[in-house]
Amino acid sequence: MNLEYGHLRVGLIGLGLEAYWEQFEGLEQRLAGYLSEVERRVISSRRLVFNFGLVDTPGKAIDVGHRCRQSDIDILLVYVTTYALSSTVLPVIQRAKVPVVLLNLQPGEAIDYAQLNRMGNRTAMTGEWLAWCSSCPLPEIANVLARLDIPFRQVTGMLEGDVECWRELEEWLRAAEVVHSFAHSRLGLMGHYYGGMLDIATDLAQVSGRFGLHIEQLEVDELSALRADVTDREVERKVASIREFFAVGEDCPVEELARAARTSVALDRFVDANAVDLMAYYAKGTGVPANEDTMSSIILGTSMLTGRGIPVAGEYEVKNAIAMKMMDLLGAGGSFSEYYAMDFAADLVLLGHDGPGHIGIAEDKIKVRPLEVYHGKVGRGLSVEMQVKQGPVTLLSVVEDRQRGFKLLTAEGESVPGEILEIGNTNSRYRFSIGARRFVEQWSAQGPAHHCAIGLGHIAEQLWKVADLLGLGFDQVC
């Protein structure tokens, strides 16, 4: 991603009513202080916050709407600090033209009724109440936005001492960061589809338009040419890196390690030269020995790229490269997987793939295994074997949707210990709350391609927020 655009740009306004400021001494300053507290809690090393202050008149709303556009914000937080007219916020939202989150945040758990009633001065008492009535205009604002078909999100809670409230807002901001990152990312596509895998084929105009990704068509010949220029010294250094990154078995031939290392060096240069942020690839390489040599030695290099935040999906699985990138941006990993088998005795599902694997979610160091054949593919070489860390996991698939272009399909489960297939593939055992039979049937009924991305933690709610900001559909199996 272009580092010039590396920060999420967050617009922040507070809503008020100008007539209140003269009527209730100190109210404006108090509400501005609450707004500053929100700013303090939202700002981070990944975000720039543009605090436009309290918007309390339609004229000021128009001005702030222009400032939102000038500041190139990605998302707008509207803190409803007290009663405010819907006409005061509508111009801001209409001109900003970005996703909107309405913040309904009280200063605390409840008004101190006894203390307020002891104040004696009803004007002062009313001013105190108005500092707590953020929920008052919420239906009015929601009514107007709904009638105009303007989407909005809500976060309701307390300014202080409300972990759930701030977790909810953080999830919206992280979702916005994913959308922002996609809009500045380059998806590299190298080679061609795996012949006959009709489920993998997708509409690249929809991919670019719905996710905001720039798509770069890449040539295997370019990678092979870069590979031919790799020096023996560079190969030696990469072999050392491979031995540090992976658990390399003694049965791995030295010449195969060198072959994989040469391809890995070339891959690093290839990705840098094309400014690739995520990639899908497949090519047989038959008929061109250099290309076959490249493609049959690519798995270690793609696993290393995936581990450093540039997810790579094999079999030209464009949709799964996107799912893997989404998982990675959320800090959940995202490893390339498909159904391997069902264990009816243990009520489990086995999922895995011949690579790439994601080091960030492996239970132990990823093992490197030599394979005499890549099932269904050309050549032989080294592959990776790993189990996903035991504990909660989420599965994610990007699925075609006739109404919205795509939808996100998710399921929450658990990676559990036990025997796996020691066949040089990434495979793990998964348990789902609805049982293995119902999971496989209900997942497949949603029409996904046969690949999915697996990430750590239960993050379906977070992924729903990403889908919402992207304007995509969303389904959760369990």
Automatic annotation (TrEMBL):
GO process terms (BP): L-arabinose catabolic process to D-xylulose 5-phosphate
Record's GO cellular component terms: cytosol
One Pfam family it belongs to: Arabinose_Iso_C
Domain L-arabinose isomerase C-terminal: 334-471
Highest taxon of the lineage: Bacteria
Keyword Isomerase in record: yes
Entry keywords, A to Z: Arabinose catabolism, Carbohydrate metabolism, Isomerase, Manganese, Metal-binding
Name this protein carries in UniProt: L-arabinose isomerase
UniProt KW Manganese keyword: yes
GO molecular function annotation: L-arabinose isomerase activity; metal ion binding
